[in-house]
Structures
1.
Amino acid sequence: MLTFANYRLPTSALALLRIWFAMGALLLGVAPDPSWMTNYPASFWRPAPGIGQLWGGVPPLSVIVGLRVVLLLALVALLVGWRTRFTSILVGVAGMTLSSIAYGFGKIDHLTLVLWAMAIFMSWSGWGNRWSLDERASREVPVAAWPIALAAAWYATGLATAGIVKYWGGWLGFDDQATYAYVVEYTYLHKSYGPLAPMLVGIEVPWAWEILDWATVTLELSPIFLLLRPTLLARAIALLMLFHISNALVLDINFAIFTLAYLPVLLLLFDDAVLDRACTYGENLVKKVVHLRRVALSAGLILAFVSWRGGLHLGIGDFLIPISLPVFVWLVKRDRLRVDGVPVGSVRAADGSGTGVVEEARQLPEGVPLPAAQLQMRLATHSFWLRLR
């Protein structure tokens, strides 16, 4: 039976998620820029059902520029955690409104729509309770798990529609291989392909391509059936992340922006203790390098300028932004990160005794509740950082 508690993340992980989401959105330039549409006649305006139909035609340039400014400033406010619930909703509403204009000529891009919905859902998650201006002003809100479950259901449904269309289109038939057809089409017709396409297009092995057809449909349909099993869903989403990277390498279809929405579910792969260690490590590492309060707003405004100019365009490198968060947590879990030669997970007591924070938590007497164990781990980690300084 599904309980929203299965989708719960600790407060520190929610804060890390908020920062990564806002930073990634700014770096990848997710704010649509439909200003070019003002150069075309009103007869081109054919919006799909939705917000776009509220406009009588392409809005004036001043409206488009104003919406972009609002969206970028809202992302900066989300990054530093100012009025987080309000700014999260503002990011979603401004993004959806801009997207409704950008899609007004009929071409609908689903990459950013998932992000705007996720921002609205997460406004109720409590992801602004830590590492934020709201925390300093004591504007904390209740922490909730249902926004993550709702975000998961949102893009699981979207992926399922893609899988159903492929199923109806005959992808599971053995007479032809749809994946190979796409590789041939992008390589020879569109002349737009990734670095692996020239090598793969020469592999004419029907059964191998048929396996890829079945794997594609299975990956897209599986999340909707795994919503009741969040841990299995997180593993399926991890495979989908690799699937999107392979699409970029072969077909040059960049879904890096879309995969930002995967991050809440991907973090469910790790238990609370690992997430707390990762967050403490990240927090103290930043403090060793810069004074966070002095540079956070300046960094956000710089990122907003980068986003205004279209964001970074690194090709396959765009995936480094969303994938770096789960990789970072995994490295902490495996004790692969070191500070001054000391593994993150091998913190010792002040007298040199002990076998590390994780082992200390495991050795607690029976009956000690998990929150107390986490508290002891945090205290030990902070003590370790004080000694480093």
2.
Amino acid sequence: MDMMMSQKEAKRGQVMGLLLAGKVDQKEAGKMLAVSVRQIKRILRRYRTLGLPGLISKKRGRVSNRRGHDHIVAHGLPVALYSDKHSIFRINAKGAAPESGTQFGRATRELGIECIHANSPQAKRRVERANQTLQDRLPKEMRLAGISDIAGANNWLPGFVASFNRRFAVIPKDAVDAHIAYPGSADELTNILSVQIAKTLSKNLSFQHECNLIQAKISGTGLVMRGAKVTLHDHFDGTRVLRWRNRKYTYTTLTKAQRKTAEADGKTINARVEEAIVKRCTTDIKRQKPAAGHPWRKMHVGKSAPDSKTVIQ
């Protein structure tokens, strides 16, 4: 294999081996990997088709979203972006809510960049023609340069872009650079370029996400945050931040398997508490039992008390 497997991916390989050998079923495999049965089926299909390489994350080797961050830092913000109507840039589904949009559209809107979507066939053709040229030339150029892996291609690409622009770029009528420097802070830019998922907190300040339970951690009762609309930010460096009203909040993540364990522990605790209550009550009763020489032992049930002034009720 060209890529090293992570510990998580290696464990998936072991569980898939047990599953194919019939030593565990899909439900048991899901518990071992803390994923749903539906996800186990998807993992199994990839494993049967590709073997161990099929278990390596598809995100491995992709260009990071940090490229957009670095471009803005180096060149500033463009006035507008001209694109086709791909679903990356806009929601194309019929009946979609007017306020709905893609992560790309949200980020450009927050940055003050206007998105212009090509409507005419001629405009669309310009983009497609450039893409076809690059899709045809890039593999050939890389083959001639002896490029055979992603890292080598990324190192080689800037030189190709400079050469391509020298040969085919058109000199603009106005040479003034319309980019403007980003006026916000580095943290604000990082937040804008993150993948943002809107969630609603339950009464116990938690929500479901990717088959996991996210539990917000706060000081105090947290009554004001019940039902709050929070945002989960997935950043390009793999970190995740929970925000509400521009404030960061720490949280814990429980997988489905961990939640079941916690529930089981809760039942065990309840049973032990009940046993302790019964034991304490039994002990108290034994402690209250009169001694052999106690006056109560000498009383005769059903007869009057010897001292008429003393009445036991």
